[in-house]
Amino acid sequence: MRYLANNEQLIQRMADSYPMRRAAQLAVSLMYRTKSLAREQGLHEMTPERFKAFVNMFKNNVRQELEGVKKELNSKKKN
């Protein structure tokens, strides 16, 4: 593994490959979109307490959605 990580030619070929360049483009695009969304929502000025409340609310929403999907899948299995 160390040999591969230190192989400059291999690293350069991978960096020049389309999948790597596209992944980098998507990562940067996602970063800028989330940054602008955070500004729009006022999240960039968030206090630690508000951030914790936001994270808890997000976790609860994800948990509720997962439970809903589980119930839906179970009802489909029964039918």
From TrEMBL:
InterPro entries given in the database record: NCBP2-AS2 (IPR042407)
PANTHER family with a match to the protein in the record: PROTEIN NCBP2AS2 (PTHR41161)
Protein name: Protein NCBP2AS2 homolog
